[in-house]
Amino acid sequence: MLVTSEVQLESIILHKVGNKSREEGLKLSKGELKLDGFVKELLMKYFLSPFKQEEYFNLHHESDINLNEVFSFCANIFDNPETFHEQSVNLAKHLYEQSNHPKIKEGEFYVTFMKDLVVHGEAVDAIGVFKSESRDTYLKVYPNGDNFDIDSEDGVNINKLDKGALIFNTDRDKGFMVATVDNLNKGNEAQYWREEFLRLKSREDIYFHTSNMMALCKNFVEEHLPEQFEINRADQADLLNKSASYLREKETFNIKEFQQEVIAHPDLIESFEEFKTQYASNNEVPIYDEFDISTAAVKKQAKIMKSIIKLDKNFHVYVHGQASQIVKGYDQEKGMHFYQLFFHEES
Questions:
Q1: For the chain, which terminal residue's Cβ has fewer other Cβ atoms within 10 angstroms, N or C?
Q2: What is the mean pLDDT of the chain?
Q3: Each residue of 252-306: pLDDT tens digit?
Q4: Strand partners, 184
């Protein structure tokens, strides 16, 4: 959990970063911004309020983390805060080099150095990088004699951060701990922030392990099981519901307990073990047999565990439990399949 109530903004600088493919160029500031208390407070709200998720990442490089540009520039700031301006210029130049997609917009690029951001109970220094790409139109109403005039002005909406990342001075050996926001994540052009500029990979924590297990269960039930066994959609829905309930109700995941309580049948358990090994290899992710369950991950990923039986293009049946109250049949006269749903009352 991220706590921002005690954060101190030590340094902030603003550069203008254009689209390289359109040769819009860079406009680099020669000095830091000097802000009064009110503007500083507004900016901190603008920068930090979107960071509500509990999913974290690490900066990454395939061969040597020091070759990740953002890691190198941020490490220099943490070690030598007096290099803040120099490294902010390096960050802006690096972002410009990645801004090649024709749909990427020119925008203001803020670099900040903060103290006392509390993450997972620890107060740490952090470097924030933020980009404003979109503009809103605001109306200005002002008196003119006995009347009023209205004018318009373009500006940045402080309630709508476009892109941002917080790089925390912790987990250095793994590429620093990172939180990121991308509210313009549409289309291929959106990948430049996370994949080209920051170069992130998921941080291996309880959120990561819980999310992976939920994805594994969904793929096992919906894709692998029908290839191995004759299983109808109602039974698939029931198994998916049981998997979600286990993760929602338990504090710790235990593979043996999960297999006995949820999967139950020996042949299915054997199939699950085989699929787990295959899934880990194909997706290059570690699947642990025991870990603490992240309630935040369960809540966010709950939508992928929804059990829906889609019947042609006419009906979607949402199954929340009790698959025994769903009976599938075939009507010879109509030549069509049907489901019978048993219930006590309609609401």
A1: C
A2: 87
A3: 999 999 999 999 889 999 999 999 999 999 998 999 999 999 999 998 877 766 6
A4: none
Report the alpha-carbon distance of residue 67 to residue 94 in Å, rounded: 13
Q: In whole angstroms, give the CA distance from residue 341 to residue 343.
A: 7
DSSP-assigned letters across all residues of 5-62: TT-EEEEEEEEEE--GGGT--EE--SS-----HHHHHHHHHHHHTT------EEE--S
Return d(Cα 150, Cα 141) in angstroms, integer: 5
Burial class (CB in 10 A: 0-12, 13-18, 19+), 95: buried
Tokens of 207: 């959120």
Q: Which residue has the tokens 């120099």?
A: 86
* Contacting residues for 326 by C-beta, under 8 A, at least 6 apart: 234, 317, 319, 339, 340, 341, 342
pLDDT digits (tens, 9 = 90+) for 46-89: 999 999 888 999 999 999 999 999 999 999 999 999 999 999 99
Query: Among 219, 254, 270, 210, which Cα is nearest to 240's?
Result: 219
Q: pLDDT tens digits, residue range 99-125?
A: 998 888 899 999 999 999 998 888 999
Closest to 43 in 3D by CA, of 137, 180, 161:
161
Confidence of residue 163 (pLDDT cuts 50, 70, 90): very high
Q: Identify the three-state secondary structure at position 346.
A: coil
135 touches 25 (CB < 8 A): no
